[in-house]
Amino acid sequence: MSGELSFTLDNQPVPFQDGQTIMEAARAAGVYIPHLCFNPDFAPHGSCRVCLVKVNGRTQASCTTPAMAGQVVQSETEELRDIRRGILEMMFVEGNHICPACEKSGACQLQAVAYYVGMLASPFTYFYPRRALDASHPDVVIDFNRCILCELCVRASRDMDGKNVFAVQNRGIQAHLVINTPSGKLGATTFSITDKAAQVCPTGAIMMKNQGYGSPIGLRLYDRESVKIVGDVAQAPESAGGRRHE
Amino acid sequence: MSKLKVATCSLAGCFGCHMSILDLDERLFTLVDLVEFDRSPITDIKQIGACDVGIIEGGVCNAENVHVLREFRGHCNILVSMGACAITGGVPTMRNRFTLKECLDESYLSGIGLVDAQVPNDPEIPLLLSKVHPLHEVVKIDYFLPGCPPSADAIWTFLNELLSGRPIALPYTQLHYD
After folding, report:
1. Same domain, A178 and A90
2. Do B97 and A96 lie within an 8 Å CB cutoff?
3. Residues A53 and A143 in one domain
4. pTM reported for the whole predicted model
5. pLDDT digits over A61-118, tens only?
6. Is the N or the C terminus of chain B less surrounded, counting Cβ atoms within 10 Å?
């Protein structure tokens, strides 16, 4: 690998091309760094902080940090695992994530990442928010109680579908997903189930109507293999350095 | 070695986790060689004695749940929160986004087909709490075993590791929230 650009991730060399982020290079090398707001089809957002790594001792989001030759990056340390677990624990109490009553369960990225970081119970006090469902669209229902504000639907609708259906309103603890129409209802938009925005939700916030529980328990995406194996890292084009976690 | 004493109960749960314990099937014979059940639906003993391990299914939704939970904490060296309801409050917490009055009115006063509608107020009915809580919001919990319910395999792994004193690590397929 002499002459190639590389950094080390948990003491293993990871090759990268100029312009790649640490996340992109790791993914191409088949190394999973847990993430929720990052999606390989979109420009990085850096908001969920689940992909935090130590870069030369500094804690940074791997999805927004450019890879540079000689960086020493740590991901799977006890400290970072604790931080990630803490972020997931906060996400789970902020909404109503009642897995046994959710159709997304088993194929839910939020749940899969929580499994990955070893979350058993959240020590934080549950919010139990009361946000009205939006079932005004004929094909899709939105449960705002399951939204984690990753803004993937916002980005997909704006940047790929060219519809700009979603937005996040307010800041901090007041931040919440809204529909970009005067009525605030999805049914009043041109949103369609073929939109990219209908496919990207990492939780059960955007769900298809007229279908559900398509896969039996035991056969759902994350039932048998960790998100580390079957998540989007599995679809990544291979980098020059080959795969580590097949 | 004397047998470890184990107590179990279901609070605001559906007994699904206890069904999962029964799913241990023939492994129950191995289990009763290792432990002695104290208060549990399996023994039908009503009063808990001094125990090594208490395993509780279901969250806390009424005054009796609080009483039983505190009794378990007082009598058990190790208290285990088993299943989604015990750990997160679970499906019963779906009422938490509403006021208790809204829930009672919807169920008993404005429901379809009610005759002589009234909210039950017999003194023997435990008073409902205004919200449903996970166990660890009320007492200290030593171990969490997620699942709705945790599979018999997960319960078996958990009990074996607990009884042998090893750190508890569930294989990937045995850790789930549903």
Report:
1. yes
2. yes
3. no
4. 0.94
5. 999 999 999 999 999 999 999 999 999 999 999 999 999 999 999 999 999 999 999 9
6. N
